[in-house]
């Protein structure tokens, strides 16, 4: 039996170069894979963390994910194969460091762009952004550390995008999954100024499918007072309204919000200025018109 074991070890060392590779790393997990060993269906993974305790895991395939680890901690890892004849074969060793608690945050969204930011990862020199849209095609973006923001461009309006961000240390080969996020681009919509008088503004906007009503919010530009609102029923067909009782010669911030099934959706905004106050005088022979800013 000892002779067979010696022969197997000699055969293995001469014919197979074995290694243990570190895959994606999070704050609490480390993914591993290694060279498969012939005549083996069980692998033993021993790992030691900052507490100095040796932990073990078994795998029936040449890969595994270590879980329940401490964040920002180094782990020394040894992989051994247990052959079908009971021999213990060293596959290899490696060292990996878990990441910090990370996340990806979605910022401003337009019909064709999505802005994202993420938690910086120490020891990283490249961040990779992976995103998939309605066509199912995976697209890639890349920025260098310490940049932690990116704008996805050229997107399809009113479409969902699945986004993932990974950090890479190209010197050690370590990869850290920072997080994922989902964002939906806006619709290609517009709000139009149709008419204006000294105390009214008439506006219309793009119809939004599925919106049961629209909310029109407005107040004088620069005002800190709460916005006034008009609810326009019978959506999505009814897409026009008139604001009344406005102050003459005043600029207003006006925005329209739709309410489709998925929640509030900003349709657009305008900043119209009401007309000056007009006084009409009539004499026996003529009529005079002049305007005053009140």
Characteristic terms for this protein:
about 290 residues, mainly beta, Immunoglobulin-like, 3 domains, seven-stranded mixed β-sheet, four-stranded antiparallel β-sheet, 1 helix, 23 strands, elongated
Describe the structure.
The chain folds into three domains: 2-97, Immunoglobulin-like (Sandwich), CATH 2.60.40; 104-184, Immunoglobulins (Immunoglobulin-like, Sandwich), CATH 2.60.40.10; 191-278, Immunoglobulin-like, CATH 2.60.40.10. Helices cover 5% and strands 52% of the residues. The chain is built from one helix and 23 strands. A seven-stranded mixed sheet has the order 5-2-1-14-13-10-11, with no helix packed on it. The protein is elongated, with a radius of gyration of 33 Å. Mean pLDDT is 88; it is low at 1-7 and 286-290.
Topology overview:
Layout: H1 2-15, E1 20-25, E2 30-34, E3 40-48, E4 54-59, E5 63-66, E6 74-83, E7 88-97, E8 104-109, E9 114-118, E10 126-132, E11 138-144, E12 149-152, E13 160-169, E14 174-184, E15 191-196, E16 201-205, E17 214-220, E18 228-232, E19 240-243, E20 252-258, E21 265-270, E22 277-282, E23 287-292
Parallel strand pairs: 1-14
Antiparallel strand pairs: 1-2, 2-5, 3-4, 3-6, 6-7, 8-9, 9-12, 10-11, 10-13, 13-14, 15-16, 16-19, 17-18, 17-20, 20-21, 22-23
């Amino acid at each position: 039996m000892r002779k067979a074991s010696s022969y197997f070890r000699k055969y293995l060392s001469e014919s197979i170069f074995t290694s243990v590779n570190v895959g994606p790393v999070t704050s609490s997990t480390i993914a591993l894979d290694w060279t498969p060993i012939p005549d083996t269906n069980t692998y033993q993974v021993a790992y030691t963390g900052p507490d100095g305790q040796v932990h073990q895991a078994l795998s029936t395939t040449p890969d595994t994910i270590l879980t329940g680890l401490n964040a920002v901690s180094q782990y020394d890892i040894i992989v051994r194969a247990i052959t079908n004849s009971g021999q213990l074969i060293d596959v290899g060793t490696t060292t990996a460091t878990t990441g910090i608690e990370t996340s990806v945050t979605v910022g401003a969204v337009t019909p064709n762009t999505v802005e994202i930011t993420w938690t910086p990862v120490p020891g990283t020199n490249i961040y990779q952004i992976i995103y998939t849209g309605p066509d199912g095609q995976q697209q890639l973006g890349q920025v260098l550390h310490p940049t932690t923001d990116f704008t996805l461009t050229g997107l399809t309006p009113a479409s969902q995008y699945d986004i993932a961000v990974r950090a890479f240390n190209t010197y050690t080969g370590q990869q850290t999954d920072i997080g994922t996020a989902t964002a939906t681009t806006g619709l290609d919509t517009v709000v139009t100024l149709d008419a204006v008088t000294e105390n009214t503004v008439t506006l219309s906007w793009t119809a939004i499918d599925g919106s049961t009503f629209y909310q029109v919010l407005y107040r004088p530009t620069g005002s800190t007072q709460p916005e006034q609102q008009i609810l326009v029923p019978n959506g999505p067909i009814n897409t026009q309204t008139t604001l009344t009782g406005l102050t003459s010669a005043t600029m207003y911030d006006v925005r329209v919000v739709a309410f489709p099934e998925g929640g509030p959706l900003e349709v657009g905004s305008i900043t119209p200025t009401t007309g000056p106050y007009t006084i009409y005088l009539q004499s026996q022979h003529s009529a005079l018109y002049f305007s005053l800013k009140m």
